[in-house]
Design brief:
There is one protein chain. It is built from 13 helices and no strands. With 378 residues, the protein is mainly α. The protein folds into 2 domains: 14-170, no CATH class; 176-367, Methane Monooxygenase Hydroxylase, Chain G, domain 1.
Length: 378
């Protein structure tokens, strides 16, 4: 029996393996690029007879990132920081004598202190003081002079950065544009997860901590999207990607997040049992239709397909609006307190904004739609 159970688990694992491998495509591609970059950097450094191939190999690994845009930024920052730090360190080494141990410590202070301050003010330039230290200390190890050390350091880093960038572009390239698409789809999935409990909370209440967790997850997903979008726009600017501009998608998802925040303010609406019983089925339909539409939108975005139809959600929202109108016509809302009436109409306003912004989302998803490949003639 135990053997049969293990066999079933193994069979399930083998069946799920292709899906798991597909979901980790970017990570496997990254590992391949890093390995190839390191090997190529070592070979090229040896062919060029660079004194310390180590720096070329390390640079190739450091500048290798998950996407082309990230590799481009990392390469640019690393090379510029290396050039600046090496030149400054070389100038200090030439102008300030440091034949003794104590004088060497003084030269290190002169070289490192201002560059450390600069790197603290510019987070992408943390290699600057490191380059200066290497230029100052390595000549004593390989019996070289400061000027030669500066030239060697710049050559070694330039070789590694160039190889890392070329490998990122040519070998199983991963675009930040694709990662931004996936991040946007993940944001929509998080919104779908949060929409149902928020709408349910309008009638039944909800702990502030639970509302905060929902908003935090959506906020974290949007932060990831913002970061990936910035890299994707750098790819577009460098002509490394021809993908759709990310700005409209980011702005639409940001507005949808604000709609959900506004909806959270209507949670715990105080009302009579009669009003609650009349609104519950209407709100349940809105929650189900809205969550399904958000998930379908995420799927369409990932696949580059047509946006989903809003018919079901529009019908649910229209039915809710009609139910609200009936309650107002009957005077049921007149019995609500000022705070309750404010929350009551805040929910209606949030739903109208969600409808409008989901319409914008459909338009944006249409812009991200991938053209169908022509079928071969038979």
């Amino acid at each position: 029996m135990l053997t049969g159970s293990r066999s079933m688990k193994l069979e399930r694992s083998l069946k799920s393996l292709p899906g798991w491998l597909a979901s980790r495509r970017a990570e496997f591609a990254f590992a391949l690029r890093v390995t190839v970059s390191a090997v190529l950097a070592m070979l090229v450094a040896q062919l060029l007879r660079l004194p310390l191939p180590l720096w070329a190999v390390l640079t190739a690994v450091i500048v290798s990132q998950l996407s082309i845009g990230q590799s481009l930024k990392s390469s640019t920052d690393y090379v510029l920081g290396t050039i600046g730090g090496s030149l400054y360190g070389g100038i200090v080494a030439v102008l300030v004598p440091h034949a003794t141990d104590w004088s060497l410590i003084g030269v290190l202070v002169i070289a490192v202190a201002p560059l450390a301050l600069y790197s603290a003010l510019h987070a992408n330039m943390n290699v600057v003081p490191i380059s200066a230290i290497i230029v100052l200390l390595v000549p004593a190890l390989i019996h070289s002079d400061p000027l030669t050390s500066v030239i060697d350091r710049i050559l070694e880093v330039s070789v590694g950065a160039l190889i890392g960038l070329l490998v990122a572009v040519l070998l199983v390239p991963t675009s930040a544009h694709r990662q931004a698409r996936d991040a946007a789809a993940h944001t929509l999935d998080e919104m779908a997860l949060g929409l149902t409990p928020l709408i349910g909370g309008v009638l039944d209440g909800m702990a502030p901590e639970a509302i905060g967790r929902i908003q935090d997850r959506i906020g974290a997903a949007l932060a990831t999207l913002d970061a990936q979008s910035g890299v994707a726009e750098r790819e577009r600017a460098a002509r490394l990607s021809s993908g759709t501009e990310t700005g409209p998608l980011r702005r639409t998802l940001s507005r949808l997040r604000h709609d959900l925040i506004f909806l959270g303010r209507a949670v715990g609406l105080p009302m009579s049992d009669a009003m609650r019983n009349r609104l519950r089925p209407l709100l349940d339909d809105v929650a189900a239709a809205g969550a399904d539409h958000l998930r379908a939108s995420a799927s369409a975005l990932r696949q580059g397909s047509e946006p989903p139809t809003m018919d079901r959600l529009v019908q649910a929202l229209d039915a809710y609006g009609a139910g609200m109108g009936e309650l107002r016509h009957e005077g049921a809302t007149l019995a609500l307190s000022g705070e309750a009436a404010e929350r009551f109409f805040a929910a209606s306003f949030a739903f109208e904004q969600i409808r409008r912004n989901l319409g914008d989302l459909d338009r944006v998803i249409g812009e991200w739609r991938q053209p169908k490949r022509p079928q071969p003639l038979r």
